[in-house]
Design a protein that fits this description.
Blueprint: H1 3-11, E1 14-16, E2 22-27, E3 34-41, E4 47-50, H2 57-70, E5 77-81, H3 87-90, H4 93-100, E6 104-106, H5 108-118, H6 124-134, H7 139-150, E7 162-164, E8 171-173, E9 176-182, E10 191-195, E11 200-204, H8 225-236, E12 243-246, H9 255-279, E13 284-285, H10 287-295, H11 303-322, E14 326-331, E15 334-339
Parallel strand pairs: 4-5, 5-6, 6-7, 11-12
Antiparallel strand pairs: 1-2, 2-3, 3-4, 8-9, 9-10, 10-11, 13-15, 14-15
Helix pairs in contact: 1-2, 6-7, 7-11, 8-9, 9-11, 10-11
Length: about 350
């Protein structure tokens, strides 16, 4: 490989933003392709890393290449900030902490979820597949989903020692005292960062430019996550934002417009689901059957995507039940939804 080719490979991971900030596109081994990490210089020296990515050899190699090209070492990292606990954001935090000695900041709710999902006494995967059983998912697919969840353990290891930040408390990095906002629906405890003066928002996975954030039922968490998500979007849409930096895809310029588009998308999805139920025999359907109707039978070929699709389907069915548009019934040891 020539030096010119090597430099090109390094630069493909980096985008220069305002104020010397860098967007680092950290590769992922699934359909999203990459997660956005942000490298933010500190006035007193060093830098802050937002959401370093999933712990895979490819991601580590990308980061090492990026840091080398910038003349930065791990010891220059002053802090690691996690918007939320999903593995594609959280996974490298422990390794970065080992190499840098920097504190890792996360919300308490996000850390509780991480411990339930990947900790020594983890139980969330078992509870999730039991929910899927009750809603009609076949045993072989439930086993595949449990194996898929377990496969993430090495990709979030080593676990970081964490410090806690909480919504509503100012949090300083990059020379800015950020307003911290808890954003419900996508990930319990997710923290967004907003600066009114610059009108910049670091929005995690709550708002993305051309894909819809996943909103899932999670056992032991919020009962109606879609309602919480829509309320959050309504509140966020009222903020004066000129640049939003999401966890995936490109920066968002029309932040309010994107929030409104996501709200409209879910309204259409709910209407579509009611129509699907009305078309079924006896106007009833299991959660799994609805998942296949929405995402097509091909969704069962990929356990990672199936888990998200099933949990999101259930989140929409819960919202329809709360709206009084469907009824939840038990039949032969499983739940079914019937149109009212």
């Amino acid at each position: 490989m020539t030096n010119e080719q090597s430099n090109t490979n390094k630069l493909e991971f980096i985008q220069q933003l305002e104020n010397g900030w860098l967007r680092v596109k950290v590769p992922l081994p699934f359909s999203l392709k990459y997660v956005n990490a942000y490298l933010i210089p500190e006035p007193e020296g060093g830098c802050t890393v937002i959401d370093p990515g999933l712990h895979t050899p490819e991601a580590v190699e990308a980061w090492e290449s990026v840091l080398q090209s910038l003349g930065i070492t791990f010891s220059d990292i002053a802090r690691i900030v996690l918007t939320h606990q999903h593995p594609d954001h959280y996974g490298l935090a422990g390794l970065f902490q080992q190499r840098s000695g920097a504190p890792v900041w996360i919300s308490r709710a996000s850390q509780r979820y991480a411990e339930r999902m990947w900790g020594v006494d983890r139980s969330l995967a078992d509870r999730l597949v039991e929910v899927f059983r009750l809603h009609g998912m076949p045993a072989d697919l439930r086993d595949g989903i449990k194996d898929n969840l377990e496969s993430f353990v090495p990709m979030v290891s080593p676990y970081p020692a964490v410090s806690y930040m909480e919504a509503g408390e100012p949090f300083r990095f990059g020379g800015i005292d950020w307003t911290t906002i808890e954003a419900h629906g996508h990930a319990e405890g997710q923290i967004l960062f907003y600066d009114e003066a610059s009108r910049i928002m670091i929005c995690g996975d709550q708002v993305m430019p051309d894909i819809t954030p996943n909103v899932s039922v999670v056992p032991g968490e919020r009962e109606d996550p879609l309602e919480a998500f829509l309320i959050s979007l309504e509140q966020l849409s009222k903020l004066d934002v000129s640049l939003a930096l999401p966890g995936h895809r490109d920066p968002i310029i029309d932040f309010t417009g994107r929030c409104e588009a996501l709200i409209a998308h879910h309204a259409r999805r709910l209407d579509k689901m009611v129509a699907f139920i009305q078309e079924q025999p006896e106007s009833s359907v299991t959660g799994f059957a609805m998942c296949e109707l929405l995402f097509s039978g091909r969704i069962t070929l990929n356990m990672h995507n199936l888990r998200f699709a099933m949990a999101e389907t259930l989140a929409h069915l819960v919202r329809l039940e709360k709206q009084g548009r469907v009824a939840l019934l038990e039949q032969n040891g499983q739940y079914i939804y019937r149109a009212k």
